[in-house]
Amino acid sequence: MFSGLSMRISLLTLACLIYPLVLVSFKQMTEWIQNYACSLQERTEDLKRQRQLAEDLLHQMLPKTVAKQLRQQKHVEAESYEKVTIFFSDIVGFTTISASCTPLQVVEMLNNLYMCFDTRIDSYDVYKVETIGDAYMVVSGLPERNGDKHADEIAKMSLDLVAAVRQVAIPHMPNKRLQLRAGIHTGPCVAGIVGYKMPRYCLFGDTVNTASRMESTSLPQRIHASSAVYLALMKDGAYELQLRGEIEVKVRLFY
């Protein structure tokens, strides 16, 4: 009996000693699990933010439908469009302006200009294809088809950009303002992805070439529209176009 009692007392004493240790260990483990869960949630949220930033950047470089196919590692087939309207513009006297400033000032000037343009074109059903130096290229009617609205969307956007360019100051010439020369044309084209490491969404066809030529033969603060655009805009009667007369336009292949 004495031996059994001693055993019970020993077990009870041992339990009294072990229980606080177990309790402390359990509390520490609970806190560790909670901290790990919080850290895991923070990392998950950060990963979601980083992924969203990457997707937003990709959508700025490529159409959403095309970007989705590339993320799924699918081959993006080139697509033909029966009718789209393409816009080209450049800065009047850009070479002269650039010659009188440093490369950093040129970058600052173009950045201010394109930030102004980029925020404005969001109000229209258009897709910005790219910028090359002072050239700005926009299209409507692809990659999402919009019926017969493409000419009207580009026309409204063109008028907006021609007015907006006067608000962009030249950093080293505060008393002068930039002038835009624009050209638009309507017709068929083919669009597709070119390249692997730095894929670009490019347009091909005579419509691209003609739109570029409309721009190069345009006048300062004017929008040179082709006869195809004229016919498309006259359907609504919402625009006033002035006949310019016959102009010699050189034809060349354009990417």
Detailed description of the structure:
The protein is an alpha+beta fold and 255 residues long. It has two domains: 61 residues; 159 residues, Nucleotide cyclase, GGDEF domain (Alpha-Beta Plaits, 2-Layer Sandwich), CATH 3.30.70.1230. It is 50% helix and 22% strand. It is built from seven helices and eight strands, in the order ααβααββαββββαβα. Strands 1, 2, 3, 6, 7 and 8 form a six-stranded mixed β-sheet that branches. Strands 4-5 form a two-stranded antiparallel sheet. Helix 4 packs across helix 5. The longest helix is centred in the N-terminal third of the chain and has 60 residues. The radius of gyration is 32 Å and the shape is elongated.
How many individual helices?
7
Overall number of structural domains: 2
Secondary-structure element series: HHEHHEEHEEEEHEH
| Name of the top-level CATH class of the largest domain | Alpha Beta
Percent range of helical residues = 40-55%
Mean pLDDT: 81
Number of strands: 8
CATH superfamily of the largest domain: Nucleotide cyclase, GGDEF domain
How far apart are the first and last residues' alpha carbons, in Å?
A: 103 Å
Q: What general outline do the C-alpha atoms trace? A: elongated
Taking Cα atoms only, what radius of gyration do you get, to the nearest Å? 32 Å
Strand content: 15-25%
Question: Which stretches of 5+ consecutive residues score pLDDT under 50?
Answer: none
From the coordinates shown, what is the CATH architecture of the largest domain? 2-Layer Sandwich
- Biggest sheet layout: 6 strands, mixed
Structural class: alpha+beta
CATH topology type of the largest domain: Alpha-Beta Plaits
